[in-house]
Design a protein that fits this description.
about 50% helix, mainly alpha, Arc Repressor Mutant, subunit A
Length: about 130
């Protein structure tokens, strides 16, 4: 999604092959992931000579939690940190309170960070590397 967001300033599509090669991801595997994002309406896909993928919304409007929910679900933010089936505030495992604090912090980060934020931070990092 960051790769697609990087090219989203133009109205051009980015090809599956370009994403796969740029990030060393098997095309078949990547295609399945992108299909899930198209089905969830975060991406638009088109076929043909100028085909490929593009975001359906501006990168600043797409939070990381949306992407996580589509691809992996939100269960990670509710599961026990050490795998107990019965673990909550009322019946905590020994790790519960520490893990819950970190887990909730990560969830908040994913709820507030957008693809636009990541893109801007990446561009700033790239600029800093070019200076050095």
């Amino acid at each position: 999604m960051m790769c697609i967001a990087k090219y989203s300033s133009s109205d051009e599509n980015i090809e599956l092959t370009k994403i796969a090669e740029e990030h060393d991801i098997p095309k078949h595997f990547l295609s399945k992931i992108l299909q899930q994002l198209v089905k969830a309406k975060l991406l638009h896909s088109s076929k043909g000579p100028s085909g490929g993928y593009r975001l359906t919304r501006h990168p600043d409007e797409i939070t990381l939690i949306e992407i996580v929910e589509i691809l992996d679900g939100l269960e990670i933010f509710h599961k026990c940190g050490i795998g107990f089936k019965e673990c909550d505030d009322e019946d905590p495992c020994p790790f519960h309170h520490d893990y819950k604090e970190v887990r909730d912090s990560v969830k908040e980060l994913f709820e507030t960070k957008t693809l636009g934020d990541l893109n801007n931070e990446r561009e700033m990092s790239d600029s800093m590397l070019n200076i050095l």
